[in-house]
Design a protein that fits this description.
The strands form two sheets. This protein has a five-stranded parallel beta sheet with strand order 2-3-1-4-5, sandwiched between helices. The chain has a four-stranded parallel beta sheet with strand order 7-8-6-9, with helices on one face. The chain is 39% helix and 18% strand. With 295 residues, the protein is an alpha/beta fold. Helix 1 (21-30) packs across helix 6 (150-161). The protein contains nine helices and nine strands.
Length: 295
């Protein structure tokens, strides 16, 4: 195939059934990707060949490949190896969610899990996780959709893949609350529960990390100042190595107890510092609106 395939870019969309692959494919279609759902892996090379001969009409491709393919799914590893051998640019997006969320989604949709048999849904999810464990380890981007609304998922994908051809390195900063559960798709997780807590001041209990009083309380602490200096230096050191390894997207999660005060302040502060360094930064506060008070 040679240099003819250099303009081709392929996204392999995979992951757990019910984790949102349909929403992903709809979003990618909106931003210009040629999308194919449930393509047998054995046909990837043929599809690539047809795309190369489309004279540039098909350049950005998104393929949904998952356990619905049955025995064909076992051929995916070989197909991915072929893409690498032919030096075709590609990335793997792996979608997942908690069992609790997946069970709820299946009950709401009344659809049958592709691996469900006489053993039931929970056993099917367990079997699917085991089948996909190796593929998850190869993924360039893992997205946990448990706490993402369709709008938030679309924003995440648009900000990441609408610029994929220019290979812009993006840093996602996520604030979260530990009592809501840790984010599964984070590359780096920082626990800031050791910082002074605004919650214990009655005037700030119902505020958030975007209120000036809370911001000043957290950032003016000597402990916070010392932490920020070290944390920013750590990121400054690490990020170039992630880029060197070919990573195009880094998710840094910062957590406090409820995800309303300290983590929000630190995510905003860290984002400002990284933007000053010239990085493309996206900030999201997962839990800030879930509770009026933090603890």
């Amino acid at each position: 195939m040679g240099k003819k395939n250099q303009g081709l870019y392929i996204l392999i969309i995979t992951g757990l059934s019910g984790a949102g692959k349909t929403q992903v494919i709809n979003c990618l279609e909106d931003i210009g990707y040629y999308c194919v759902d449930n393509l047998p892996p054995t046909l990837i090379s043929k599809f690539v060949e047809l795309s190369i001969h489309s004279e540039g009409n098909i350049r950005k491709i998104a393929l949904v490949i998952d356990v619905r393919g049955g025995n064909f799914f076992d051929d995916l590893s070989e197909a991915l190896g072929e893409l690498k051998k032919e030096e075709i640019r590609h990335e793997i997006i792996f979608l997942e969610a908690s069992d609790e969320v997946l069970v709820r989604r299946y009950k709401e949709s009344r659809r049958r899990h592709p691996l469900a048999g006489s053993s039931g849904l929970i056993e099917a999810l367990k079997a699917e996780r085991a089948m996909l464990e190796e593929l998850r380890g190869q993924a360039n981007l893992i997205i946990d959709t448990s706490n993402l609304s369709p709008r938030e998922l679309k924003e995440k994908l648009t900000s990441r893949f609408s610029e994929s051809e220019s290979e812009v390195f993006s840093i996602n900063l996520l604030s979260f609350g530990y009592k809501m559960g840790m984010p599964l798709d984070a590359d780096i997780v920082i626990d800031v529960r050791f910082l002074p807590n605004p919650f214990y001041d009655p005037l700030m209990q119902k505020m958030t990390g975007k209120d000036h009083q809370v911001i000043n309380f957290v950032l003016d602490s000597p402990v916070t100042k010392s932490f920020n200096r070290r944390f920013i230096n750590l990121l400054k050191y690490l990020i170039p190595y992630y880029i060197e390894e070919g990573k195009t997207n880094l998710t840094v999660a910062i957590g406090c107890t409820g995800g309303q005060h300290r983590s929000v302040v630190l995510a905003e502060y860290t984002g400002r510092q990284l933007k000053k360094m010239g990085y493309n930064v996206i900030i999201r506060h997962r839990d800030v609106a879930k509770y009026k008070v933090e603890e």
